[in-house]
Amino acid sequence: MQHGFYFDHKRCVKCHACEIACKTWNEVEIGPRWREVVKIESGTYPEVKAMNVSMACMHCGDAPCRNACPVTAITKRADDGVVVVDPNTCIGCGFCAWACPFNAPQLSATAGKMEKCNFCQTPGKERPLDMPRACEEICPTGAIKSGSMVDLANQGRERAAARLGGSDMQGFPGMIVGAQQQFGGD
3-164 is classed in which CATH architecture? Predict the structure, then answer.
């Protein structure tokens, strides 16, 4: 079953606690960031918009980093969908970093190998999948959620339904046409 993250940018306050928790839990050296909070800005003055996004490996279904690795050091685990780097096979060429649209794989200056978010599955420190990831556990606003993609999609649908049915949506119809195609489900 594919596992991953749900991120609510409206809740993120850019405190960087998720970055620190990730580095601490996984014992990531100074330099690489397996999770990084970035600010995305658009528009021009006076119509400027900005949002904070906590970025990590997306554990893609057809991971471009895995496909770019010339020595097959990157694999996708069948049981949970987590994309991992085998440090014993990695040659540190960086092809995975060039292929990844999220800048997830990063070079360890100490080891000379690529590394990235492993869904808190660092050998010897594996978190059970039903437990929050380190970044999720520390987030003071609840902006990061982890779990099976099915559960996360259901949570997303529930939040969308609450927004659509909430008092801030007065004047909008109480019907969604084509909801199954847009939100999935039964």
Answer: 2-Layer Sandwich (3.30)
